[in-house]
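[User] I have long wanted to understand how a fold can be written as tokens. Those tokens are not coordinates but codes from a learned vocabulary of shapes. Could you go through the record with me and say what the backbone is doing? Thank you; the sequence and its tokens follow:
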Amino acid sequence: MLEADQRLQAGSTEVAVIPENQHCGDVADVRKAELAPGGSLLGCLGVRGQLVVWDPADREPSPAAVEDSDCDELIPLCTAEQIQSHDLSFRMFPDHLLCAAPRSRPPLQPQHPRDQDSLSSSSFSISALGATFSTDRSWEARLNSMYSRAKQATAPSSSCFASSQPPRTSSWFSSLPHLDPHLAPSSSHSRVPPGGMTVAFAVPESSASSQLTVSEFSALLTFVRPGNQQTTVALWDMEYGNVRYHQAAGEAAPVQRCGERQHRLLLKKAGVFQVLFSVSQQDLLSRLMLFGSAATVDAVCHLNSWGRCSIPIHALQTGLKNRQLDTVDFYLKSKENVLNSPAAAFSSADQPAASALSLTDSTLQELCPALDLLCSAVRDSNSEAQSRQFSEQLLNITLSFVNTQIRSVLSNTHHEDSGVQSCINVLDRYVGELRTCFCLRFLPVKREFFLPTVAKLFSHRGSHDCVVVVIWCKHYEPPVHRLTPRNCSLLSSQSLSERQPWFEMLVRIQEITRDLSDPGLVFQASLTSAQVLLPGSQASLSSLLLEGHSLLTLAAIMFAPGGIDQRTVDPQLLKMALAPHPKLRAALFPAVPRGNGPPSDISVYHLLQSLLPLDPSRLFGWQAANTLNSTETSELPHFSSAHLVQRFALKENLDYLYFLHHGRPSFAYATFLVQQLSGSGDVRSSYEAAQEWALAVQFCQLHNLQLSSVYPAHCAHDGQFIHFLLFVQLHNFPPQQVRSLAAQFGPTLQAHLSLAFQDLQVYCKKSCDSDEQHSVLRTEEAASGSPERPGEMFQALLQSQEEPAPCRYLLQEAVVQRCPTLAVLAACMQGAELLPCLCVWVLTSVDDVTAEEATSHLAQAPQHHEWTLHDLSIIWKTLLGRSLARPLLRGFELFQKDCPLVLVLRMFELCCDYRNFAEAKSKLLDFQRTLIALRNGGPAPPGGLPLQWVESQASVLLLTMLQRCSSQYDIHRLLQLLADVDKLLKSNGPDFRKLNQLSQLLQGSEVSISPRLLQSSSPSVQQEEFQATVDALQARGCYSRARQVAQLAGLPVHRLLLSQLLQEVSSQRSKRQWGRFETRVGFWKKCHEQLEADGTDPDPASQFFLSQAEAGAPGSPEAPEDLLDIQEHCLLLGLAAHWLSRIAPAPVDKLESLEKAQWLSRIRKRILTVAMEKESVFNLPPAANPEMNTHKALMKEFSFSNITQLNVEGYLGLEGLPGPSDDPEERSVLAALIGQLLDDGSIHEASRVCRYFSLYHPDVWLVLRCRGLASGELSDEPQEDGAEAPARASLTSSPSVSSLSSFVMLPLPEDEVAVQLQKLVDQCRHGNNYCKQVLSLYQLCKELQCSFSSVCGEEPCSVLEKLLLSEQPERFRKARAFVKAQGLSADAVAELISSAMVQALLASSQELHPGERHIFRPLEGRDALVQLIKLCDDPNLVGLKLLEHLNSVPLRDLNCIVELLIMAHDCFSLTCNMEGIVRVLQAARHLSHTYLPPRLVLSSVITPELKSSLVKVLGLLKDAAESFSKDSCVRQATRCIRTAKLVALQLHFLNQGSDLRIINLRPAELLSAAMALPRCYQVFVVSEAYGYSPDWAEILYQKVVLHGDFGYLEELKRHRPLTSALFEDIFKNVTSNVKRLLTYCDDVYSRYRLAYQQNLHDITKMLLQDAKTSSYLSDRLGS
């Protein structure tokens, strides 16, 4: 038996899944309960055989019950509808257990009475119900039958009964299988060990097991006591061996769930509950919110009476991400009472009087993150077109929630005023932000949906226009209606105005209200109205006249600048248009000259008489010209007009009660005083009388007499207590006299004054006698309770007037009384210093603990301290450390409002309290601008603080903000804010810019900014923390970020890269791809390139590759035995040596040891290869492939032969070279490899290897001797005959002689060294090419008369240059042989030749050093030039180099430039390079157009070449067109044909001697070229070739209008029609040939309008009189 961990109630939860129902009866009597699948039916079997089955969704009372005649079971029949009969047995109504809606079926009772227990009655009932008869009437059989039928009801082939009822949805908990612990699908991996497991359960006595469910992981049991008491559910976790229990409270019956397992349901009186283990209530709701829906959570909370608990914010984030508005709504509903939750505990009656609830910032902290998230979601979703519907719904939900919160806070009278105000300020900020989003969303929607409606309305023009405008203005919302072209660029869109003329009209009409005195706005609006009337035409007065709108035109002219007198329209046209109105035309165009006739008796107001809405007799009365006015108004009516106010205004005087009712006590008090002072009943107690009696009182005070009480007595008699109190206060009446005078008031006022005087503290001047003063002080002492100081603020203020330093006294009293107002009053004193006032105000505005901490450094009491900047610094730092920025802000706003620190304090508040980083950024920018202005000598505020101190405190504030950030997100946002502060503040604090960059780099990683970086500015600490950050990123594999952080901090990065590479090596070797050789080669190449790009130090890079090579070195556990491993080992040694050679000075001994180690691996590789070949003919080494080629290239690049430190002269001598050996076969492999080295020319390496392994190699000996002889280091004595004879014998037959004949002359008989060298060439098997090069160089040295050693030390190009500069007759042939022998690249040879050509041409043109020799000699002719060019294998390279050198030739050497172009042309001609030839021609054209004068001889040189090149190009284009056509490439063939036509046209011009160029045109040159072409078809050729649309209007204007070439026009007419638009464009520029050009315009109306616009009245008259055109024009002009 296993001892299981027994735990009771360990994290279990009961969740109600079915509410309370009256059907089940007493739970203690339930013997068995079972729930149908999906929770559709619940059945309970009682102790007396009573079976109760009901639908859990049915909340109706229990129906009537019937008793079964067979088993005496009482069965309530619960269906969705009322059951028609109650006398049937249970076996006859199995369908009722499904609680389905009744269907139409035969009557349940037969028409003829029968025995209900008979078989016939049963058969009838079964047929009526459509069910089959079953003899098994047990509980299990009935439920199984119902379960089967319920499953069948969901199938497509369900019966009509099943289809009549809508499908049920499963319960909320059925969709969350993950809530049940240890529920896993069946698998073959059981957690039970062999032999089984046993456990004992600790359950109450007399408990019996009721249900058991076993899975692979756990067992779930239920134990029940009699009467269903202490029902216990036990969960045995077989995987971990523990048992957890859940004991139900009260009576609980277990419920079995059909067809499912591992669910434990308990039936209680309150409903059905599910038992969940290891799931708390909060976890359950959170998971339901994430994986279910908000409606589910709401239903569960309601079902369990939990109330809405605190939903986590990540549920809101998930809801917003998934666009689940129900989740958002549920979350906000859970926060409905977050601001009023304490108030729910009190009613309005029992609320304690002094228990005001506090709304602190912590209360809003629950809402602010959620509201920020919601506002951000609204903004983000509004920017996407497909998300605007979601944005609108989310906006409405959020606005409704915020408004509800504001309403609830304001309606709750138990909150403190300060808390309410701060809460409302925060919520109001969110309302403003959401309204901004609302406007942003609203504007495009209104434009999108409403403007088309207005456009549709405006399509019905006429008298309804005014109505449409009214409708538009009425339905437009205020945010849209206030749009103007100055604040909305859409309203000034030209394209929109052109497409929708009505839109511009509405805008212009709206602009009229901007300035009612500007008639030009009305004129512009009238023109846009004309545009609506004349769509497609230009809005002008002439257009209106031509269209027949003469009266509308005349009305518009009235508002034009200058009116009709300025002749804004053609008078003739206007006169003709007014023909239907002869009187009006006569008035406007009188027969007599204007000014000579009688004055006009008509004005615009007479014209307006017929317009009923504008009656001039009642309107426009302020206009002097309106003679029809019947009113007396002389100004434009407005709401403040005196006569209108007098007649129609409703006046009301607001008394103090109005202001009290509206919560404005200050206004109420001031109004009350004014009313009382101005409403005196008796002149004796008026304010003026008080001024008269003041002289008498002053006389009494001066002579120490009792103060006159005449005026106060009158005030008491009249009941004017305000005047009374004011008078006795101003003149300091003694208390006793005041009390005696107060007794003269009426009873009511006397009682009020007595109560007011009970605590009155009166001060008497020192002029009073000692007895009275003593009495007064006793009164004060009794009132204040303090014998030392006055106990009231006003008393202290009065006392300060008698002190020698009133300001200091008030500050002392402010500290003692903890009264900030006294500090404000002290600052108002004359000569007061603001610094002490600020310190005292801040200290008295905070709590005692904070004030004590801020003054702990003082050696004396605070009230006696002299306050300095040091004290303010400590107060500043203390309050900021406690996050009390608001007292500091208020204090600085009161006493140092112009100090820049006010701005940073506001920034602190915005960031820390409101998290409004955008507004905080603006405050910080203002602070920067203020500091810069002060530094540049700007005016400092009076009484301001020192600038250096301000900067220091700003640094303290910024550092405090960083240190108090509670999350990395806040630090990130704050550092973004402070990134630019470093260049502003002169402090030793942290580098904010660097910290911001670090924060940016750490975003998204798990590494956070160290607090020490924010606290310490020590360089050592900073470097230490940055290094720790780099190490943390490196440990997480974030190498790229770690590198950036290291670079930011100035830390070395090579260690980082090496660590990254080591990790990558480990990762790569664990992969299967590492077995592929190309993977390894590519990886090591990438490592080298990364180290190269990173600029890694050579030493650690070399150690990296060496460590990888040593991991597989011979003798190590990982010694390479595979051929590919050995090749990899060789490559790693080469890379290690390459990096090691970069160290200065290079460690030669280490390089030699690495080289020897590589050679050991190469020998091993050779041995393995030979062994593989011998083993099997099929077991061959890998063939040459791309990856092997890559490896070979890398081995060549990092070969030891390339290390200059190893290629010393000592290895080229015979000293130390091993001699012949008796056992050469043992080292045949090494000898073969050395032979390959000699063939490759690696003489140094071959010599070193022989010395490493003490190997004698005859060819190495011959090669080194050959070089020694040529350099003169060895004597040229002939060898022994035995060795010499074979060489001589083979001289004539050696194949090397024929190969040497191309570049080596046969040695002369007298040159013994050459003879010896030739013998060595013949004898050498490997390294033969090297010996030939030595012999060639030796011969060349003889020709050039220089030493062999000097030539060997020079670059091959320098030697070639010397050879070409020599006077050898066959220097070009020898040079070609030298190039071939030395293997010079074509690019190097081309650079040498091109540079030599340029130098020679420049020298000849400038006549510099006439005796100097050059490689290129122009006098030798073209053959020499061609031979020189052919020295390069690719002559095109020479041509390109010559073109590049053109920029280095001065422009004054034009002849040199021309010669270079010709030589470049020759280079390209050698290979028929058309592209190069075109480049030469382009350069020549540019030169001729830009620098050369016309008719230069260059044209004669270029032109024949150009013609021949164009002919070749034309032939190539024709061939290409045919090829494309055969391949059905129509587009490419067409393009070739068009280009061929262009080339043919260019040849045509060249043959005619024309210099017109039409090939290689730039886009800007096309129009001028088209103008220059004489024929129309030529323009079509050029336009088709370039895909260019010619400006025919401009071309015809130049050709036809200016030059009169109408043949050109005729030709164009044959190719394309001449449209009216074309003539419109031409007539923008008109001169002499216009009349003739108009005859080509077929459109009569266009011809008339153009002629009219150009004042060609003879043509317009002819058209109007012509019978063919007059009728048509009359109709057009009349419409």
Notes: The two ends are 112 Å apart (CA to CA). DSSP finds 77 helices and 14 strands in the chain. The longest strand covers residues 13-19. Residues 331 and 1234 are 83 Å apart (CA to CA).
